[in-house]
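The records we work with from here on pair a chain with its fold. A complete example follows; check for yourself that the lines match position by position.
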Amino acid sequence: MIAVNSSKDIQELHFAGHPSAQKLKSLRELESIVRQARTEGKTIVLTNGCFDLFHAGHHHLLQAASTEGDVLIVAVNSDDSVRRLKGPQRPLIPLERRLLIIMGLEVVDYVTAFEEDTATALIEAIRPDVLVKGEEYRTGWLAERQAVHACGGRVVFVDRIPGLSTTSLLQERAASRSSE
């Protein structure tokens, strides 16, 4: 289920000299961390996404998510998952680099990766108190909504900064190149 699920994968990032690599966790590790945090009365917050071509909109989402509880877990789609969701030209940034970017953010407590197209199985396993998503998911279908509600959690939507999505940034870039 989780792309980075072996201690070998995690160790390779540790040995790469990244001080924040200890934030990268497997599902099994997260389950244990969440159990312990709950015994301490902490609120578990999860957000997930591709986080391809990390930009200010992503940063805004993660900052807002961090205010919703005590422990912020960020789940990042694998490269194969991003391709299925966004098309064959994506991701622009490989998973390992996307993980390192997210791990480097002070507001993020833990990071994991997942292979599926939705974080439903991850939600069912760690049962977050809060799932944070961008406002574009407020209306319409959100695969993870039912799983969050089933475990007694709630979904919080963060307002988007206009014009800041990876897709819109890439479309603007393509348009400017074609007008040259």
In short: The radius of gyration is 16 Å. The chain is about 45% helix and 15% strand. Helices lie at 7-15, 27-39, 56-66, 79-86, 95-103, 120-126, 143-150, 166-178.
